[in-house]
Design goal:
Layout (H helix, E strand, L loop, with lengths): L1 H40 L5 E15 L4 E14 L6 E13 L2 E2 L4 E3 L2 E3 L4 E4 L2 E9 L1 H13 L1 E16 L2 E2 L3 E12 L11 E3 L3 E2 L1 E3 L1
Antiparallel strand pairs: 1-2, 1-12, 1-13, 2-7, 2-8, 3-4, 3-5, 3-6, 3-9, 9-10, 9-11, 11-14
Length: 207
């Protein structure tokens, strides 16, 4: 009787071990298949372009630390160059910066799906009211104002996922930087209320 019980336990252990090996083999096969598909398709990061920017307000006040009030509408377009891969943009924050200092509040772009070889266009407004800026930036802004030329950067910070068939990847960080060279004509009190940047600018994209 005890011998039969021992054989039965040994058989159960062998069965469990075999089932575990089969399960591990199946998981490894799936992972290997996904890896092969990923390497074959090789997703290319999306292309971003700044199509235009309209400045409705760009006023500096206060001393010695400046306070900046801005209102800018930008038009951003993105193209997915992949033939078989879609892109989910889960969360994108758009904001403007001057000499690496953020000068507007981030504007959130709603979640968007972009099919393969598809183009998506957004036109968010970027706002800020009495945002403190460093003293050295106040002097730099004044020099740019007197010169009539201002270089801003429109930046996008967020998360994306790749979609291949029914499979969707994990989230990846995406950072986009778009230069915008604005030409102003205004007096010392501030910039004129409507300035347009209409030369398409190619953005750098890091994923």
């Amino acid at each position: 009787m005890s011998k039969d019980c021992g054989n039965h336990k040994h058989w159960l252990k062998k069965k469990y071990r075999h089932s575990l090996y089969c399960l591990l083999g199946f998981v490894l096969l799936i992972l290997f298949t996904v890896l092969v598909i990923w390497l074959v398709l090789r997703p290319t990061k999306p292309k971003f372009y700044l199509q235009d920017a309209t400045v409705y307000a760009f006023n500096q006040s206060g001393s010695p630390t400046g306070l900046l009030t801005t209102s800018i509408q930008v038009t951003l377009s993105t193209r997915n160059p992949n033939d078989r891969i879609g892109v989910y943009y889960d969360k994108l924050d758009v904001y403007a910066s001057y000499q690496n200092q953020q000068i507007t509040m981030p504007t959130v772009i709603p979640p968007t799906y972009q099919g393969h070889n598809d183009v998506v266009v957004w036109s968010p407004f970027l706002y800020a009211v009495n945002v403190p800026i460093a003293p050295y930036l106040c002097a730099s802004l004044l020099r740019d104002q007197n010169a009539g030329v201002l270089l801003l950067n429109v930046k996008v910070n967020g998360r994306l996922r790749w979609k291949v068939g029914s499979w969707t990847s994990g989230r990846y960080h995406i950072f986009v930087n778009c230069p915008a060279l604005l030409t102003f004509g205004g007096g010392a009190a501030g910039y004129s209320p409507l300035i347009r940047f209409q030369q398409m600018s190619t953005c750098t994209v890091d994923v």
